[in-house]
Structures are given as structure tokens and as C-alpha cells.
Design goal:
Length: about 230
């Protein structure tokens, strides 16, 4: 299964949500994170950024075999590997390259969660179109929803993870009404999550405020079984 997390606006929490999803599924038989933005090493607390990576594979075009992706993987925790972004700038690839990457990840049979950032390039949108599910990560603000409505990826978006900030007036029902897709989970923006990321311990000490709603979202996507309350 390939799940693509994206957002129409930077700073919405896509990288943290992607990392948490990979960590949660890895506990139940293994998973992989594909990083298209370069933020995952910092979120997962790696001492250094692995290279080469996915963007380097894309830059090689038709000369890079799908199995080469396996050699790029870095172990993060038991059952979880990371395909890092690498050093190549992301903009010059053609859409066929993005589609080929998605197909290679799907063929591997490993549940893969992609940090796709803002899906601002034709190749990354082609990648997302092939994914089994696309999940937009948004905060309850007017600007984020306005950008999401005009984003081409909304046409193939499966659902939303809403990052709920204290003081925002927009709620899950408002987001569903505006975007026309279901809110799969609402994650409260808490200091405990920020501290876990800043300290590099998300992989070992995921806050329940992040993990619990994401388990529900992943269950709705068919990636996990729903836990009894």
C-alpha cells in the first residue's frame, strides 16, 4: 500500500504526520517512509541525513532499476526504514518519472508512507495519482483551505487529517464542507508533540495526542486494525 501525505501550505505538519504513520504501522509488521521533501531525517531524529536518496533515483531516469531503491533505505527503528530525499533538487523531473517511482514502491509490497510536501510539481502530482490513498494535512485556517480548494491534487484526495490549533474557529465539519472529502482524524497541536520532534524521540516516545487519532485514520485507510477503546 502507498499512502501519500501532502498539504497545500507549508508548516501544516505533513512531515510529522507521515513519520508518525510509518512508525505506527511498522509496529504491526513493517513499513517504509519515502521522503520527497528532505525533512524526515530531522523529524525522526537522525544524527545525519542519508544520501543518496529518492530524488537521486529520479534524476537517473530510466537508468535506475526499481530494486535500487532498496539499497537507499536507512533503518530507523525495528520494522521501519526510510528512503531519504537525497541531494538532487526536486523540480526538473518529468511526470513519467513520478509515476515510475510510485509504481516501484507499490510493487515492493511494503506499506509505504510518503512525505510529499505541497505536491507542487507535475511529477509529484503524477506520483500521488497512482498512490492507493492521498491524505491532505491541513490546519483549520482560511488560507490553507483556500489553497486546498484550488489545488489539482484535491481531485484525487482520499481524506484529511486536521491539525487543530487552539483558538481556530474552523472545525472538522467546516473542512469537510469546504473540501468535499472526509476528515479522517483530528490531531490536536500540542507542545508534547513539538517537544518529541525537537528532542529527536518521536520514534520511541510518540505522544498519545498524535498517535491515537492517527491510528484511527490509518484504520479507516485499511493500514491498521482499529484498537478497542
Amino acid at each position: 500500500m502507498l499512502v501519500c501525505f501532502w498539504s497545500p501550505k507549508g508548516g501544516s505538519g505533513v512531515s510529522v504526520v507521515t513519520a508518525a504513520a510509518g512508525l505506527l504501522v511498522a509496529r504491526n509488521g513493517g513499513a517504509r517512509i519515502a521522503d520527497l521533501t528532505g525533512d524526515q531525517p530531522a523529524v525522526l531524529g537522525l544524527a545525519r541525513e542519508p544520501a543518496p536518496g529518492v530524488l537521486d533515483w529520479l534524476a537517473a531516469g530510466g537508468d535506475a532499476p526499481p530494486e535500487a531503491l532498496d539499497r537507499l533505505a536507512a533503518e530507523i527503528s525495528p520494522g521501519l526504514t526510510l528512503l531519504p530525499a537525497g541531494d538532487t533538487p526536486p523540480s526538473p523531473f518529468d511526470p513519467d518519472s513520478g509515476a515510475a517511482l510510485a509504481a516501484a514502491l507499490l510493487d515492493s509490497g511494503v506499506p509505504t508512507f510518503c512525505d510529499a510536501g505541497r505536491l507542487e510539481y507535475p511529477w509529484s502530482q503524477a506520483f500521488a495519482e497512482i498512490a492507493d490513498a492521498n491524505v491532505a494535512v491541513v490546519r483549520g485556517c482560511y488560507l490553507a483551505l483556500r489553497r486546498a480548494v484550488g489545488h489539482p491534487a484535491l481531485a484525487f484526495t482520499t481524506g484529511v487529517v486536521l491539525v487543530d490549533e487552539h483558538g481556530r474557529s474552523l472545525r472538522g465539519r467546516d473542512v469537510e464542507d469546504v473540501l468535499g472529502v472526509p476528515v479522517l482524524a483530528t490531531v490536536e497541536a500540542r507542545a508534547t508533540t513539538a517537544r518529541a520532534v525537537d528532542a529527536g524521540v518521536l520514534a520511541t516516545r510518540m505522544p498519545d495526542a498524535l498517535g491515537r487519532p492517527l491510528r484511527h485514520a490509518l484504520a479507516r485507510l485499511g493500514c491498521l486494525e482499529e484498537r478497542a477503546a
